[in-house]
Design goal:
This protein has helices at residues 18-29, 41-53, 68-82, 111-121, 123-139, 150-153, 162-180, 199-207, 212-218, 228-239, and strands at 9-13, 33-38, 57-62, 87-90, 142-147, 185-192, 195-196, 226-227, 250-253. By secondary structure, it is α/β, with parallel strands linked by helices.
């Protein structure tokens, strides 16, 4: 299964750790050539090393997705290295301090914190889509998955910047999907719930801002936190031919929290 990824190219942002790294490792194991895109040089190179040690193909591409020119150059570099851009996982995200999800109501969100979150979580996806779609339209083929969040589907108190940024990802996903569907390009979003092994969740748990036992007992209908492997399964599905008639959707992978 998934032989379709053999020798194809995938561009993955936020691939220096967490969900991005797990996705990079999975696609490499399926035979894809992986552009490991991140602003964290150490983490990005570690991901590349892990892929190569497992027999896969990967290159590190330095990029801050909040910078238009850097994304343009990163996409061009990927095509230069591998010859095409077939799939993309626009996964880079952050909180106000660059790591943590900011827990503050709108009335307490500073403009500085708002812009930090929006510039990476939403504007970063815009930059990636812009240049990925230009390349994919030349190829008349492509599949893109953007990382939104269950927090982008259901607003909650205290997510004054993060929730709106992730809701915007769903909207821009649908815009890109409807504009490019007739040219053989599909664009979808994945909406994780609380997931172990991701940078944002791990930092939140370490700080005490989240109590996993409380969430599993009272917030997540299935009664368990998600895993990065479960998120990666969704990304692989949305890129594969198993979802060939699916575009513009926001897929919740959250243990039922969307209900």
């Amino acid at each position: 299964m998934f032989e379709e990824f053999q020798n194809k190219t995938i561009f993955i942002t936020g691939a220096a750790s967490g969900m991005g790294r797990a996705t990079a490792l999975r696609f490499a194991s399926l035979g894809a050539k992986v552009a490991v895109v991140a602003r964290n040089v150490k983490g990005g190179n570690e991901t590349v090393q892990m892929i190569r040690e497992a027999g896969g193909t990967a290159e590190f591409v330095l990029c801050d997705v909040s910078k238009d020119e850097e994304v343009k150059n990163a996409v061009a570099k990927t095509v230069e290295l591998f010859g095409s851009l077939d799939y993309a996982f626009n996964n880079a995200g952050c909180g106000a301090d660059g790591v943590h999800i900011p827990f503050a109501p709108l009335t307490e969100v500073t403009e500085e914190d708002w812009l930090k979150v929006i510039n990476t979580n939403l504007t970063g996806v815009f930059h990636c889509l812009k240049y990925e779609l230009q390349q994919m339209n030349r190829q008349h083929f492509g599949a893109i998955v953007n990382t939104s969040s269950i927090g982008g589907m259901k607003m909650a108190p205290g997510f004054g910047a993060y929730g709106p940024s992730k809701a915007g990802v769903i909207a821009i996903t649908q815009t890109a999907a409807v504009e490019n569907a007739k040219n053989g390009i599909r664009v979808n979003a994945i909406c994780p719930g609380p997931t172990m092994g991701t940078g944002l969740m791990d930092a939140s748990l370490a700080s005490g801002a989240q109590d996993p036992a409380f969430m599993e007992a009272n917030v997540i209908p299935q009664g368990k936190m998600g895993t990065t492997d479960e998120i990666v399964d969704g990304v692989v599905f949305l890129c594969s031919e198993l979802s060939s008639h699916i575009t513009g959707t926001a897929l919740p992978v959250c243990g039922g929290m969307q209900m």
